[in-house]
Amino acid sequence: MKTPRQTSFVPSLPFTPLHSLSLLLLLFISSCARQGYPTGGPKDEEPPIALGCKPDNGNRQFNANEFYIQFDEYVVLKNPNDNILVSPPMKQQPEYTTKGKGILVTIKDTLQPNTTYLFQFKEAIADFNEGNLLPSFEYVFSTGDAMDTLMLEGHVLDPRSGEPWKETVTVAAFNSDTQTLSDSTTPSPSFVTRCDKQGNFAFHHLPTGHYRLVAFEDKNRNMNFDSTEAVAWDTTLFEAYPAPKNNLKSVDKIQMADSSVLPTDHHPQITLFISQPEIRRQRIISSAFTTKGHIQIVTQLPMQQPMVSGEKVEWRLNNKRDTMNLWCLNPNCDSTVIIVSDTNLQDTLRLRYTEQKKGRRQKMGATVERKPLMTSLCDGTKAFYDDLRLAFENPIASMRDGAQVEIMYLKDSTVTYCSLSLDSSSLSARLMTSLKSGEQYRIRLRDSLFTDIYGNFSDSLSFTLTPKDYGTLTLHIDNQSDFPLVIEVLDNRDTVVQHSTIQAIKQSSNLTFSRLPTGDYRLRAILDANGDGRWTPGDYRQNRQPERAVYFEKTLSLREKWEMEENWKILLPGNQITPRALFIPNTPKK
Asked: Fewer CB within a 10 Å sphere, N or C end of the chain?
């Protein structure tokens, strides 16, 4: 039986011709509305457009204490104190606020007479709805009758890769007529700008003069570089020059382009090479409990002769000697005070263990899975001549006498046994055996072979291993760079896997890099100016530029059992070009 439809009560009213006309109109509108639903149109991906400024952009005899930029839509400001540069810099930071569909800038500093001021909005403006960033916008005015129109341009590169620096770089111009960079305290810059993502920079609206340039990270945004910040500089005096006619920026145009301009034929680009200065002072970077009873300490420099006092602990250093792992003799220790000493270092650490926050998938009250005491470091990438090793979670206190490892040759099920050798660190052990390349083995270890400092016994362990054979790379180097060389082999993560040095200048040398796993490699040559066998960064106070590097022009693909030969002629890179090296290709032979 159907449920009767419920209807709302509508009072009865007399029906008139006007009602009939209204009903027809309502039906017509309803039929039109049923044709489809509006989609809202394509997503807005355009940045906001500036419609005008008050006072006008490019105003002369400027005497106001504020200006307003009008846009075609509502906008928001993104970190204005970091992303808006004022040149020349002001002692008192302007105030930036949004007002209507625009931005109001209030000037709180006293303006200098007959001076051109440039406000650079570097990704500081975005539309309100979609967050589309305006890459660059410039507002310029002069407090005098004339507008400065000269410029300087260039780029900042990493001296080892020839690529732009990964962090944001501020570039400062110092007027040589009134400032010097040889002072013990660095003066405030005359003008500032910022590199784009390609490492390019440009100064606009400079007055006549000669300038020295310094580029730095300016992480604390104080418009000055600190001793720990990456820095690049050039002692050359660069004369500001007129902008090329095809790149002139009219101050009447409100929507300004990006401040970086193309290089010109008349004025070669300035190249600054930036590097992170060497840290000479030892200090502790981090220290904390990783788990109950286990502490990890990381230092700025490799430790020389470390000592630990206070809590009774066992401690070990990593291979780089910049990380110390400590195991408290009480495995449940969750707070301690220890004193760490080293050359030019003594620090008292008060540490407390804090419980890790439970993840979404971890149930309340669930037990944490205990890590095995013993694990294998023998994976499928090992070569047959590499040491086969075991790793331990905690230092090992003892190993069973006569402990042996069972090795089964899977091709014919032959079983052999080998002994174990515990390393001096007590954190790894070596299997005393040799295997054949390309053959498959199953390795088994019985339980209770090792006992750690807490009395825990190792579990049994079994794994399968197929050792590989690596490749060999031979380089015929023709060094024409006037410097000793450090030749580095880089993997696809730009990690140095092997390196060698060449002290001969203007001579040919042969280098062989053996035991390289299958993979793609790049070659880099460090021009070792001080001959210390490694890359040396710049030192601003000593006016020592960072050592340059050149790359072999192609990527090398090395396979198992390959013997590859390459010829490389290394030239001194010019200061105005991206570092590159000439090469003579050779077909790899298998």
From this structure: N
% of residues, the chain, pLDDT over 70: 80
Task: Burial-class residue 560 by CB neighbours within 10 Å (0-12, 13-18, 19+).
Answer: middle
Q: Which residues contact 582 (CB under 8 A, 6 or more apart)?
A: 553, 569, 571
500: number of CA atoms within 13 Å, CB side? Answer: 15
The edge-to-edge listing of strands for the beta sheet with 231-239 is 191-194, 170-175, 210-216, 231-239
Residue 29 corresponds to which tokens in the numbers above? 């509108």
Query: What DSSP line would sit under 188-246, residue for residue?
Result: PPSEEEE--TTSEEEEEEEPSSEEEEEEE--TT-SSS--TTS-EEEEEEEEEPEEPPGG
In one-letter notation, the amino acid at residue 212 is R
The three state secondary structure string of 20-70 is HHHHHHHHHHHHHHCCCCCCCCCCCCCCCCEEEEECCCCECCCCCCEEEEE
Mean pLDDT throughout 262-267? 50
Taking residue 370's Cβ as centre, other Cβ atoms within 10 Å add up to: 8
Cis upstream peptide for 302 (omega within 30°): no
pLDDT digits (tens, 9 = 90+) for 363-422: 544 444 567 888 887 766 666 667 788 899 999 999 998 888 999 999 889 999 999 999
CATH label of the domain that carries residue 177: 2.60.40
Q: Report residue 32: phi and psi, to 5°.
A: -65, -40
Task: Kindly report, residue by residue over 434-469, the tens digit of the pLDDT.
Answer: 888 888 889 999 999 999 999 999 999 998 888 888
The domain in which residue 60 lies consists of 50-142
In this structure, what are the phi and psi dihedrals at residue 541, rounded to the nearest 5 degrees?
-65, -30
Residue 176 near residue 209 (C-beta atoms within 8 A) = yes
Q: In whole angstroms, how far apart are CA 44 and each of 47, 72, 76?
A: 8, 13, 16
120-124, 345-349, 358-362, 531-535, range with the lowest pLDDT: 358-362
Q: Which of 273, 299, 326 is the last residue of a domain?
A: 273
Among candidates 218, 239, 164, which has minimal Cα distance to 196?
164
Split into its structural domains, the chain has a count of 5
How far apart (Å, rounded) are the C-alpha atoms in residues 118 and 115? 10
CATH number for 116? 2.60.40.1220
Is residue 36 in some structural domain? Answer: no
